[in-house]
Design a protein that fits this description.
With 325 residues, the chain is an alpha/beta fold. The two termini are 29 Å apart.
């Protein structure tokens, strides 16, 4: 790896290997002067994530996480509305749903068939390889100290009937911090298999449906009398129609495809490198996502086989801590 970096001398490296190797490869790339785009999950735990970010800052390099769902068309529109004050103040409550269809892909079938599959050896198993997309949405708005976490996970009855008792595929999480709360659901069995996020403020709310690429404004005030039942459905229907038209326009402009968020994220990351600006995902947000996930897996530890940080990662982290001291 070191020889390859010396020979090729890339400016940017995209790391898409299994997460167990992210820390070691990311560290080598940064030490050789490369900016790093790290596929999710960013690292095995917060210690590794903080070490990578600290090294990037020390070297004057940029690093980001592949949370591309946050940069799809509707997700960007939602972010702008929140920042422009549509909620009427800071968020009060959030809800996220992340569905996963086990057995619907070759990847899932391989996971179920192979007891030594690399996903099974992650600290959070299947959950760690998937839920960072959903957790990152909450981390964006929990801007202060890490929220308190209450997590409940279990193996679905379907997997148990198949003789599978190690893969936790159902997860419910409560998040709370001061005046803000959140509720996150991950499910392989719930139908429809949703990918949605809702955020509520003191005046209004927003509902994002990633599958339909729809963003609905939720009006905080009710209409008088029967107008609530007559006008509100038509208003929501009009918003759905508007989203459909916007999606068609994006499609005709060749800017509507499953990975439009990844395209935008990568372009923004490269722009931050060229122009010296901030990376598209704040480091605080990457660390917040990691902290929440660490706490979830800690609480699920009795039900999961949790490996410790890899020896290579532990050695580098200890070295960095010694240097800081």
């Amino acid at each position: 790896m070191s020889e390859l970096l010396k020979e090729a001398r890339p400016q940017v490296v995209h790391i898409t290997t299994p997460p167990q190797s992210h820390f070691e490869i990311g560290t080598q790339c940064l030490l050789h002067g490369c900016h790093v785009y790290m596929e999710k999950p960013f690292a095995l735990n917060t210690e590794e994530a903080a070490s990578l970010i600290g090294l990037a800052e020390q070297k004057g390099l940029k690093i980001t996480a592949g949370h591309d769902d946050q940069f799809r068309h509707c997700a960007r529109r939602m972010r702008k509305l929140v920042h422009d004050g549509f909620l009427g103040g800071p968020p009060v409550h959030m809800e996220g749903y992340y569905g996963y269809e086990l057995g619907a892909s070759g990847y899932a079938k391989a996971l179920l068939a192979d007891k030594q599959h690399w996903v099974r050896r992650l600290p959070g198993g299947l959950l760690q390889n998937v839920i960072s997309h959903g957790i990152a949405r909450f981390a964006e708005f929990f801007t202060d100290d890490p929220p308190q976490v209450v997590a409940h996970g279990f193996v679905s009855s379907r997997l148990l009937a198949m003789g599978e008792s190690e893969i936790v595929d159902e997860l419910r999480v409560i998040l709370y911090a001061q005046q803000m709360t959140g509720y996150f659901t991950f499910s392989s069995q719930m139908r429809p298999s949703l990918h949605q996020f809702r955020i509520y403020g003191p005046s209004n709310g927003l509902a994002l449906d990633q599958d339909q690429e729809v963003l609905i404004k939720l009006r905080g005030q009710r209409h008088k009398s029967y107008l609530e039942q007559f006008v509100s459905p038509m208003t929501v229907a009009g918003q759905y129609a508007g989203c459909s038209v916007a999606n068609v326009k994006s499609f005709l402009a060749n800017d509507f495809h499953p990975k439009s968020g990844m395209k935008y994220l990568m372009e923004s990351f490269y722009q931050s490198i060229r122009q010296g600006g901030s990376p598209p995902i704040p480091y605080r947000e990457i660390l917040q996502t990691s902290r929440i996930m660490d706490e979830i897996f800690f609480q699920l530890r009795p039900k999961m086989h949790i490996p410790s940080t890899s020896p290579a990662a532990a050695a580098v982290i200890q070295k960095n801590q010694n240097c800081a001291a």
